[in-house]
Amino acid sequence: MTGPLLVGTITAVRSHSSHAELVVLGPSLGTTTALWDSVASDLSADVRVLRFDLPGHGASPATVQPFTFAELADAVIELVDSIGGGTFTYAGISAGGAIGLELAIRHGDRLDSLIAICSSARFGTAESWAERAARSRLSGTASLVTLSTERWYAPGFVDRAPGLVARSLSQLVDVDDESYALCCEALADFDLRDSLGEVGVPTLCVAGEFDHATPPTQLEEIAAAIPGARYTLIDGVGHLPAAEQPATVAALIRSRIAGMRVRREVLGDAHVDGALASVTPESADFQRFITRYAWGEIWARPGLPRRERSLLTLAALITGGHHNELAMHVRAALTNGLDPAEISEAIMHTAIYAGVPAANSAFDVAKRVFAEQES
């Protein structure tokens, strides 16, 4: 690749699951992968976590060549491909969120979902970024410590967590001055305000109550412009909620990656692996669609227990005559705690409202599944 090189860090999955989904975490300007330490530790209980550093930050090499945020998004795809490729959930803070928006527009087929945290479709003015770039080149990133302290954290956090803040500012001082300046110039050119309607990825926009760098109104505007996007506010945090409230951030990210996990829990690994193994280029989008919405949105909702959702699903499938799907959901109903007698009772109930022929066909399907389970 001719663009910037990004170096990443993989956090091992503690569950040793062979089906663990991938979450990619993008940093804010002036921070490193350490920003995500606590969040990554939380998520890695059951998902793979890939973190990366911006050019000249942390482990990523310094650069003297200008780059764009579109090129940074391409570099993230190169990094993901280097560890096996596939689709992933992406969460990014500030500049990391800007990379996420570029990913959603340029590589939407690779994203399962996007979480844009304390970010914007347009940061500040070109003049303000040119001034900061000049300051970095003239006096180094050490000259930005005071400004960053004021912009990064909510009131009182510096006093509550002086050690964490000191480590973060030390990492800022270690950032390559020229690379930081080039990041600033890339931000000066970044503007996706007219392109947000092109985002087709399920998106969550997260704001910090005390974030003055990217105020909550900017996240609300992004959410309003992206079809189907959601917005939420984290109380009591500034610009870096992953540092201030990592458990809250981890929970928000986890809520967006529930799809494949719920799908496997309900349908079983064998069925899901079979479905994924038979994916073709024509059906790939459909598989991502049902994982995101059927399993990540509907089945993951807390309003009904899974056994009740199974009953509703059985009734709907019988009524619609969708017997190709019925056997799968009879198995799912058994997994979700229903016994054969309860499933039979549900089929009897549909005989009155959906018709005897529909119930008769459903009993044939159910009997085959019950026999499979017994054997």
From TrEMBL:
All copies of domain Carboxymuconolactone decarboxylase-like, residue ranges: 285-367
SUPFAM superfamilies, sorted: AhpD-like, alpha/beta-Hydrolases
Record-annotated AB hydrolase-1 domain positions: 22-242
GO molecular function: peroxiredoxin activity
Gene3D superfamilies xref list: AhpD-like, alpha/beta hydrolase
Annotated InterPro entries: 4CMD/NDH-1_regulator (IPR052512), AB_hydrolase_1 (IPR000073), AB_hydrolase_fold (IPR029058), AhpD-like (IPR029032), CMD-like (IPR003779), Decarb_PcaC (IPR012788)
Classification via Pfam families: Abhydrolase_1, CMD
Residue ranges the record marks as coiled coil: none
Entry protein name: 4-carboxymuconolactone decarboxylase /3-oxoadipate enol-lactonase
